[in-house]
Amino acid sequence: MDETLSTLARADGARLKAFAETLIPALGDVEVVQSRSGLVMLPMRDTAQGVAFHLGEVLMSEAHIRRSDSQGYGMRRGHDLEASMAMALVDLAMAEGVEQAACEAFCAQEAQALADADTDVLRRVEATRVNMETF
Amino acid sequence: MAYVATRGGERAIEQSERLFREEMGAFDQARVDEVKRSLPYLIDRVMGEASLYDEDLAALALAQTGGELYEAVLLLRAWRTTQPRLTVAAPVEQDGLFTHRRISAAFKDIPGGQVLGPTLDYAHRILATEVLEGGTYAPEPVEPAAHSAPAHQPAVSAWQAENDLIDLPEDDETKGNDIPDLTREPLLFPSKRAHTLQSLARAETGGVLALGYAAQRGYGQAHPTVNELRLAEAEIAVTHPDGRSFSAGRVKVSQAEVVDKKGDKLRLGYAATFGWNEVKCIAAATLDLNAPGAEKGSATEEEFFLYHTEGVESSGFCIHFKLPHYVTFQSSLDAMRDAKAKKAAKEPQMEPSSSEAVGHEKSEPAE
């Protein structure tokens, strides 16, 4: 799994859009190949017989853009075309080496926020661990 | 039996829909947000049965239908048919789940231990009536542990297979659009396993519970024990155009394995669904466990439970009985009158009363 893309896909939407705005002047003209919402089918593995089956579909937003030989891509949960386009812009900027340090800093900051949120959840989950004794 | 098209009543029909919607009043984004925030488990149930994961759409459907669950699910199922399919994600694997709750009733000491997660299983069921007297219901906050629970845990069944308690087949490697899909193919019997599990994932919770409960009470061949129950978040693993795989976000899922001992090995039943709905998963896994060798027409026979727990079809069939069947009833009335006339001809001394004659005229339905 690519950690940078995974981080951008779950990054805070408002912060992602605000940061991507700052990249637009430096990126200049980009070709928009795709900007749409739609459904992604999500299969799951049955642990009893090892068969993959469809749990159902998830509403997602997708953006695919190009600049010279590089491409940027964004896919995020929900109907938010601006957020998926913002993800694609950051991805494209990193592919082109545009504002590389700022992009890496943004991704690191968002990755830390997501990790902190996960840690908070898992500490609360750990509080429900049960050690059973039989007698 | 035959049906005919009828005309008339357009104004009444329009006004009846207006009456339904008027009684709920206007609603806006704030109502949708409030539904989403305050009823997460209902949202999960609707997303599971609709087979469409999006909390905003599920909350909108609930707000628009006033909580009429069958209508809400129908709205979402209809909406999803209008949307393009962007791609098929990689299959969610058990050991990749971000786990919030994982328990086993069959084995006390499962590897990784047992975490209860969010549950009311051990709570006193006391209605918070103080709220109706102006008070506020403020739950006690969780006291987080000093360290984190493991985010990922292996399947209990994998541990059992390692200990020769269970036989597990190799993983089926079918991927992407080759995975059998009920939304594009009919459900035929014997059902493909992928169809069975997809159908149970979309099944109506109450229907699954009723049939699963029947099996649990002894109307099936196998009594279930929960081998593993899990509430978790699953990653949606998709692919960048340049080939890099990444997680495009997480969705809540629940899954259950139930187990039965026959012979010298354990046998598993399995089910999973969108959202956190463990009752549905345990009941559905019970049906899966009981399906092999079930008697034709029994509640645990696959064809029986898959057809009868498809909520949109079964509620639609039930509802259609409210629609006029005038020709059917007209022909039935004609047959009844004919039989009565023949009987009267054989018994000329029996005169029909005047009230019966009037009743005939009044009971005749309009065409």
What's a concise summary of this model?
The complex is a heterodimer of chains A (135) and B (367). Chain A has helices spanning 3-10, 13-27, 81-96, 100-126; strands at residues 31-45, 52-67, 70-77, 129-130. By secondary structure, chain A is α+β, with helices and mostly antiparallel strands.
How would you characterize this protein structure?
- The complex is a heterodimer of chains A (135) and B (367).
- Chain A has 135 residues and is α+β, with helices and mostly antiparallel strands.
- In chain A, 49% of the residues lie in helices and 30% in strands.
- Chain A has four helices and four strands; from the N terminus they run ααβββααβ.
- A three-stranded antiparallel beta sheet of chain A has the order 1-2-3.
- Chain B has 367 residues and is α+β, with helices and mostly antiparallel strands.
- Chain B has a four-stranded antiparallel beta sheet with strand order 3-5-6-7.
- The longest helix of chain B has 21 residues, at 326-346.
* Number of strand segments of chain A: 4
Query: What spatial order of strands do you see in the largest sheet of chain A?
Result: 1-2-3
Rg of chain B to the nearest angstrom?
27 Å
The biggest beta sheet of chain B is recorded as: 4 strands, antiparallel
Low-confidence stretches of chain A: none
How much helicity do the residues of chain A have?
40-55%
Which structural class fits the helix and strand makeup of chain B?
A: alpha+beta
Mean of the pLDDT scores of chain A? Answer: 95
Structural class category of chain A: alpha+beta
Low-confidence stretches of chain B: 354-367
CA-CA gap between termini of chain A: 46 Å
Largest sheet of chain A: 3 strands, antiparallel
What percent of residues of chain B are in strands? Answer: 15-25%
